[in-house]
Design goal:
The protein has about 270 residues and is mainly α. The chain has twelve helices and no strands.
């Protein structure tokens, strides 16, 4: 024991002194906060804002049970939830299918670097625009409705999924690709027989994670007319129909919790097999 303690002290003494670097990083963070505060002024909470917050809280405890348990009409919460789920599901599936070619065109271990650079640039451009911007553009083309939501989520999903798919592809064992090259396989055969079978579980897990995100996006997009539960929710709040808003929010919270539980279990199954 007496020999070990001096060795520990010597090791601690020889550690590089990084206090200067830490203080420099802290100073940069504080400077950013100081500059940012001028761009985000705090005006306090208005009396009307407190009233709205209180009304929303009361609505959550006293929801309109007529629409909360209405499984027939399109104004019922269950029907709106199913529409939102359908928009998120189809948008995720179409986005994932379109993302796979982009991912392979962006993977530097599959295609030449100049092609991969073009693929990465396209993905960056797609990721630049928020989903709401795509929704506003598609509404002008196809009109408001659930189909616009599907198109929006499909395009918005490409940026994230293609980027993550490409990273998964680049993490493959290079020995597998070299063995396929030695066997005389062309690029299509390498992808079909040697790469895709190893990637499907990771692709599926990433797609499920994107579906969770799209469920929340579908609600937001509904507020700009892209279908789902978002539009009825914003209309209820704008018209001060707090009991209706409470019913919609309760249905949305329950739906998101169920999706989170199911998707987490599926992704764990794909990752660990348990």
């Amino acid at each position: 024991m007496s020999v070990i303690k001096p060795k520990i002290k010597d090791a601690l003494r020889k550690q590089p002194n990084e206090w200067g670097t830490k203080l420099f990083v802290l100073a940069i963070i504080l400077a950013i906060f100081y500059v940012a505060k001028d761009f985000i002024p705090y005006n306090g909470v208005t009396e009307q804002g407190l009233l709205i917050a209180r009304n929303i809280f009361n609505a959550l405890t006293n929801p309109n049970q007529t629409i909360l348990f209405d499984f027939v009409t399109r104004d019922g919460v269950p029907v709106l939830i199913m529409e939102t789920a359908a928009i998120a599901f189809l948008g995720t599936i179409f986005g994932a299918l379109i993302s796979i070619p982009f991912a392979f065109l962006s993977a530097r271990n599959i295609v030449p670097k100049w092609i991969a650079s073009i693929g990465v640039a396209i993905i960056v451009v797609i990721r630049t625009f928020p989903a709401v911007v795509y929704a506003l553009m598609f509404i002008r083309v196809t009109g408001p409705g659930a189909f616009t939501g599907v198109l929006t989520l499909s395009v918005a999903s490409i940026g994230m999924l293609a980027k993550l798919f490409a990273e998964i592809i680049e993490d493959l064992d290079p020995g597998i690709i070299e063995a396929l090259d030695a066997s005389g396989c062309n690029t299509i055969q390498k992808i079909q027989y040697g790469i895709l079978p190893q990637l499907m579980s990771n692709f599926a897990s990433t797609t499920i994670y994107r579906f969770e995100i799209n469920v929340k996006y579908a609600t937001i997009l509904g507020m700009v007319g892209a279908g789902g539960i978002g539009a009825p929710l914003i209309f209820a709040i704008s018209a001060y129909r707090w009991s209706d808003a409470g019913a919609l929010l309760i249905g949305l919270v329950i739906f998101v919790l169920i999706i989170e539980m199911i998707s987490t279990r599926i992704r764990k199954k794909l990752a660990t097999g348990e």
